[in-house]
Design goal:
Layout: E1 10-21, E2 24-34, E3 41-49, E4 58-65, H1 68-78, H2 82-93
Antiparallel strand pairs: 1-2, 2-3, 3-4
């Protein structure tokens, strides 16, 4: 995707190309979009499985970001940090 494919109210960043969790491989992206009725951006981390047979995307909501600077800070914290990404995934999937 190019940066021109989404409106300015939408920001996305690739966090991992091939993250291995529980024997499956995922592409992980952070998506931030301006929400209606909320200040700043709604932030979601999306885990997209490489093997699509019956698998669905897993979405993890993060606290809102007030600015693009906040979004970039979160991207820096999560990029190259498979432990944090795995913890987010496991938290979304439950026990």
């Amino acid at each position: 995707m190019t940066k021109f494919s989404r409106p300015r109210s939408w920001v996305d960043h690739r966090l991992a190309d091939a993250l291995e969790i529980e024997g499956a491989s995922y592409t992980v992206e952070l998506v931030a979009r301006r929400g209606t009725g909320t200040a700043g951006y709604r932030v979601t981390v999306v885990f997209m499985p490489h093997e699509r047979a019956g698998a669905e995307d897993v979405e993890v909501e993060l606290p809102p970001a007030m600015s693009t600077s906040d979004i970039h800070q979160r991207v820096k914290e999560l990029t190259g940090n498979p432990g944090s990404l795995s913890a987010l995934y496991r938290g979304a999937k439950g026990p």
